[in-house]
Design goal:
single chain; alpha+beta; 8-stranded parallel beta barrel; 14 helices
Length: 915
């Protein structure tokens, strides 16, 4: 097993045979190469080291006699820890350097262990890069020679050479190190590789010019073709293409190992030209996937890209990936179509991803906030401006509400009354038929538009009817808001949308009831929202509910001497929970961990606690990932939510569970509850008990309605300290009638009536183009339950980082300003490790983007600092956010520091400080 370094990435080096080279050919650029001067010039990397002299009787680990001194590197906690030397001043670009080291190992080792030579390149303006030079396998009984070469294409600010590699706890022994510069003639016939991240393709033989060299089949055969199907299938470029054939599983395909050529913490772009052939399949899903084996033999599968390929044309499959840790083996492969269908590959390119500069902030002239883009909304001019979508009939009706719907009222403020007229739609023969308008020229890119309307349906409906304000944007459906109607009252529709690419045609229409059911629409408003005005309101609300007056009362000194004493107050932690989703692979990236620890105080595991992860096959339990993530959170005092015990949506349930009969399924559910909650008792502050019950019903369908309450009651018995949550999506945005606030309230009350100890309401918050009053309205409604509300999976998405920051600010300010909300969890923050594209706050290689900067500014805004002087009453007063504080007092004779906590409360908090 290769013990790759824990915080590095290796370029593609081939080990060079240096047996014919001697140190006399050139000057050794390593100083104190034989440790004759102790450890002078060498430094242990996060561990300890000492030198054993030639005549010492305490020689260890190697029975084979050493001719001189050697270094012992001990107390190694990680495989990457070893001995390093700065060689910056002694290397130059364009030269090839040969490495030869005599190494050994000592300690608790069975068999052999690898020792590696590595180069670390540091630049002031970017993260360090690490490159593999060579390795050798070493046993405890003898010295081995480690050899390799390297060459620098450009000169970094700092170059560090080091040796690393054995398992933690195993001592690394180093007898000598020789690094010499060699001319090309001296290395004739050897292979070297420049140390440069560069944009070179790391795939060897990417267009099959060298036949199938470096390629292999993954569970199938691969063959080379210059054409197929009587000349109908020919390469898009080059002379040949490869085919993965005789495939018996969807994961069979063509692969190439890229171990050593892919670097950790670098983003890579993958582009493959593919198509399918045979088995009477004309279209199928084709995927690029990365298989990664870690040094502790864990396997990871990373999905990179997928698309529908056809048997008609070559298509380009594109995606990105990043490795957080240091793998021992990496294989990239192409898979996907059904068994029996060939995958054809014309080329494959994997390059370091180009850094895309952020989009500029959108410049919107005359945004006309609050101005309705709908013509003749009040129908004062009959139905002019409207047209029927389909062969329905439009006319003007009366009797509709004279006031704006509440959510629009919250956005627009005082407004003239509505006319009381409505569009009456009759003779509807399809659900999509209704009133429509073209609004193409009235919309501006990157503006967020609020949608508001009163809707009502006529008689003749059987069961609840879904009414929807929809937009056709270049023939794509965009949801503007929905309402479920099962009576003859007027109902409010509230929603939002945003357009980020220039459309050629935009139509708005209202649709939904069953054919034959009349539809009435009144006061339809579509207007851009003024977010800054809303933010001003929210700042005032935030001050009321998240702050408290504080009086520092000083005693112990002469009050006259205290007067005018300088006081400095600083908040060290806001008590409001801001958390994020993390994954097991994330915590191998020290840059990710650093951002996590500095900017979040809660965490939730994306997948690692879910049943399909902890027990993918019956009886085969995997808690290792969750254990390691919990350990990290505990180390940094980060609280954790348990997500999730069960997931009600059938598509997320393992096949072995779906195959169980009722009795066995009941037993499996009980075992899951007992196993998980006993193992982690007291370790997770919250649990999402049965995820997305408004959108799925697998367990209820198979085990009856009582099973949901049983899950809550049993979880509470097994871990009474944990708060038990319901958790679902589209609660807050008006775009899903299955999960409206009213439906969610009904759902919680139903569980409580069955005795379920529901302790919290989880709103996932996967939201597009959020509008504050719509979100706030949902929170107000849910507030009647009297339970803490958390945003549990918040993410927002926009290709423009500034607009993404605006969306995030909307959601965070609405949450922080609402008294019922007690915490916010982001559903990740790091690019390539989020469920939605264009939603990250930190770019793949660690750069905080504009949306991330917005988050950090808000965190700063919500942290109090105050300073001033003690008044004549020996007091200092301020108003501050809830949380932990430190105060410094400079008296004439001494400087005093104290800490205190500001908790929620309506009356001023008096903190007595004795000097």
């Amino acid at each position: 097993m290769e013990n790759a370094q824990m915080n590095n990435a290796y370029d593609n080096f081939e080990i060079v045979n240096l047996s014919s080279l001697s140190s006399s050919m050139a000057t050794n650029i390593v100083t104190n190469h034989d440790f004759s001067s102790g450890l002078h010039s060498w430094h242990p990397n996060g561990c300890d080291g000492f030198v054993v002299s030639a005549d010492s009787e305490c020689r260890k680990g190697v029975s084979e006699k050493s001719v001189g001194n050697y270094a012992v590197v001990t107390n190694r906690k990680e495989c990457w820890q070893g001995l390093e030397q700065d060689i910056t001043s002694r290397v130059s670009p364009g030269f090839t350097y040969s490495v030869s080291a005599s190494v050994g190992v000592s300690g608790p080792l069975q068999g052999c262990s690898d020792v590696l030579a590595t180069l670390k390149l540091e630049n002031r303006d970017s993260a360090a890069s690490y490159f593999f030079i060579g390795k050798t396998s070493v046993s405890k009984d003898k010295w081995e020679k480690l050899e390799g070469t390297f060459s620098l294409s450009t000169m970094p600010d700092r170059v560090v050479f080091y040796l690393e590699g054995p398992s933690p706890g195993v001592d690394l022994l180093i007898e000598s190190v020789v690094v010499i510069s060699s001319s090309p003639s001296e290395l004739e016939g050897t292979s070297t590789k420049c140390v440069s991240a560069g944009d070179d393709n790391i795939i060897v033989n990417p267009k099959f010019d060298d036949g199938l060299n470096n390629w292999s089949g993954r569970g199938c055969k691969i063959v080379l073709h210059d054409s197929m199907a009587d000349g109908k299938v020919v390469p898009q470029s080059g002379k040949v293409f490869a085919a993965a054939t005789e495939r018996t599983q969807s994961w069979n395909g063509i692969q190439q190992e890229i171990t050593g050529r892919v670097q950790r913490k670098l983003a890579y772009e993958v582009s493959a030209v593919v198509r399918i052939f045979g088995n009477n399949i004309t279209s199928a899903d084709v995927r690029t996937t990365l298989w990664v084996q870690t040094p502790d033999l864990r396997e990871q599968y990373i999905g990179i890209a997928n698309l529908q390929a056809t048997d008609k044309d070559w298509v380009q499959l594109q995606g990105k990936f990043l490795l957080n840790g240091s793998p021992s083996k990496v294989v990239l492969y192409i898979e996907g179509p059904p068994a029996g269908t060939d995958i054809l590959v014309n080329s494959l390119v994997v390059k370091h991803a180009e850094k895309i500069p952020p989009s500029p902030p959108p410049s919107i002239e005359n945004p006309a906030f609050g101005v309705n883009v709908i013509s003749n909304s009040d129908l004062s001019d009959g139905t002019n401006g409207w047209f029927p979508l389909g062969n329905c009939t439009l006319s003007v009706g009366t009797g509709s509400p004279h006031i704006l719907p509440p959510m629009a009222r919250d956005s627009l403020g005082p407004h003239s009354p509505l006319s009381g007229r409505c569009v009456l739609v009759t003779k509807r023969t399809q659900t999509w038929m209704g009133p429509a308008q073209m609004i193409t020229d009235k919309l501006k890119l990157f503006l967020t538009y609020q949608v508001s309307a009163w809707v009502r349906i006529g008689s003749g409906a059987t069961g609840p009817q879904n009414v929807n304000v929809a937009l056709g944007v270049d023939n794509q459906w965009v949801n503007g808001g929905q309402a479920e109607i099962n009576d003859d009252r007027w109902h409010e529709i509230g929603g939002s949308f945003r357009i980020e690419k220039q459309p050629s045609k935009v139509m708005v229409y209202v649709q939904g009831p069953s054919p034959g059911v009349d539809l009435m629409v009144a006061g339809l408003q579509i207007f851009p929202v003024n977010r800054e005005a809303r933010f001003r309101h929210l700042r005032n609300e935030t001050d009321k509910i998240r702050k408290r007056d504080v009086i520092l009362k000083f005693s112990g000194g002469d009050s006259s001497s205290l007067l005018g004493t300088f006081v400095k107050v600083k908040q060290t932690q806001n008590s409001f929970p801001f958390g994020t989703c993390i994954s097991r692979t994330n915590i191998d990236n020290e840059d990710f961990v650093d951002f996590l620890v500095k900017n979040f105080n809660w965490a939730v595991f994306g997948n690692e606690l879910k049943w399909y992860w902890t027990e993918p096959q019956q009886g085969k339990l995997n808690y290792k990932d969750a254990d390691e993530m919990l350990d990290l959170c505990k180390r940094y005092n980060i609280e954790t939510r348990g997500h999730c015990i069960f997931w009600e949506v059938q598509g997320t349930v393992q096949s072995w569970i779906q195959a169980l009969n009722k009795n066995d399924l009941t037993t499996a559910v009980q075992n899951r509850l007992t196993g998980l909650l006993t193992r982690y008792k007291g370790k997770f502050r919250h649990y999402d008990v049965n995820n997305e019950m408004l959108h799925g019903s697998f367990y209820q369908d198979h085990l009856g309605k009582d099973i949901r309450a049983y899950m809550f009651k049993t979880a509470n018995q097994l871990d009474p300290s944990a708060l038990l949550f319901v958790n679902d999506y589209h609660i807050e945005d008006g775009c899903d009638t299955r999960s409206s606030p009213e439906k969610y309230i009904e759902h919680v009350l139903d569980l409580q009536e069955q005795g379920a100890p529901v302790g919290g309401v989880g709103i996932q918050g996967h939201i597009d183009s959020p509008v504050g009053p719509i979100v706030s309205s949902s929170l107000d409604k849910l507030g009647i339950l009297g339970l803490p509300i958390w945003f549990t999976e918040l993410d927002v998405s926009s290709i423009n980082e500034y607009v993404r920051g605006d969306d995030l600010e909307v959601m965070l300010r609405e949450a922080f300003a609402h008294p019922a909300v007690e915490g916010v969890m982001l559903w990740g923050f790091w690019e390539l490790f989020m469920s939605r594209e264009s939603s990250h706050l930190v770019n793949a290689e660690g750069e905080v983007n504009e949306a991330g900067k917005r988050y950090l500014r808000l965190k700063q805004e919500w942290q109090t600092k105050a300073h001033g002087h003690v008044d004549e009453n020996a007091e200092f007063s301020f108003r501050g956010f809830h949380g932990t504080y430190s105060v410094e007092i400079d008296t004439v004779s001494k400087k005093i520091s104290k800490t205190f906590v500001v908790e929620k409360g309506d009356s001023p908090l008096v903190v007595s400080i004795a000097l």
